[in-house]
Write a structure and sequence with these properties.
Blueprint (H helix, E strand, L loop, with lengths): L3 E6 L10 E2 L15 E4 L3 E4 L1 E3 L1 E7 L6 E2 L3 E3 L6 E5 L3 E3 L9 E3 L9 E9 L12 E4 L1 E2 H4 L2 H4 L6 E3 L4 E7 L7 E2 L2 E4 L1
Antiparallel strand pairs: 1-2, 1-6, 3-4, 5-8, 6-7, 9-12, 10-11, 12-16, 13-15, 13-18, 14-17
Length: 185
């Protein structure tokens, strides 16, 4: 049996890679990194993320571990919208939670709250260079016509560089928020 090599990445959300056997001094791995955006200090979402690969011996002869130079992983094609409610923040690459972290704050009926809509790829990486959609944030109150009765109509606005904040107001407990794409601008 030959020397088995283990490859690790700094992308915490990519799939773990099986070890591979070295043949004639080389080994090949199939790898899909999924985090192509970064999020800093609850305020800044950036395009692209730098990751590192580390190869080490899993079994066999003793060899030194090696770490690559930084590899820039860019977001893929924009495929969906992500809405973040008060208390939530983006977690690019974390598909299991729809690219979100944090806990939704309790919302009080009749109070205005700011929500954020992001344009993202399949892995919830922020995408700022795609065609920007015209979006409208609606609540179940809006769909039932209740908010118009209270003088509130949600605006239809384009995302700017992949992001836009909207003020929403819900008027009854149990209301929900959704984000339909009105059209592509």
């Amino acid at each position: 049996s030959g020397t088995r090599i283990k490859l690790l990445t700094s992308d915490e959300y990519d799939a773990d890679i099986d070890t591979e056997t070295m043949t004639n001094g080389t080994v090949n791995f199939d790898l899909t990194m999924v985090t192509g955006a970064t999020y800093y200090q609850a305020t800044t979402l950036t395009w692209g993320a730098t990751h590192y690969l580390t190869a080490s011996v899993f079994s066999g002869v003793s060899l030194s571990t090696s770490t690559s130079s930084g590899v820039l992983v860019e977001p893929s094609t924009a495929t969906k919208l992500q809405i973040l409610l008060p208390g939530q923040h983006p977690v690019p690459g974390k598909v299991a939670t729809y690219g979100k972290g944090g806990s939704i704050s309790s919302l009080v009926a009749g109070t205005t709250y700011t929500v954020t809509v992001n344009l993202v790829d399949d892995y919830y990486n922020f995408q700022s260079s795609a065609t920007m959609p015209l979006v409208e944030v609606k609540t179940t109150d809006d769909e039932a016509g209740r908010s118009t009765l209270w003088g509130y109509t949600p605006p239809e606005l384009p995302l700017v560089n992949g992001i836009r904040t909207f003020d929403i107001r819900m008027f009854r407990s149990g209301s929900q928020v959704r984000v339909p794409v009105v059209s592509m601008v």
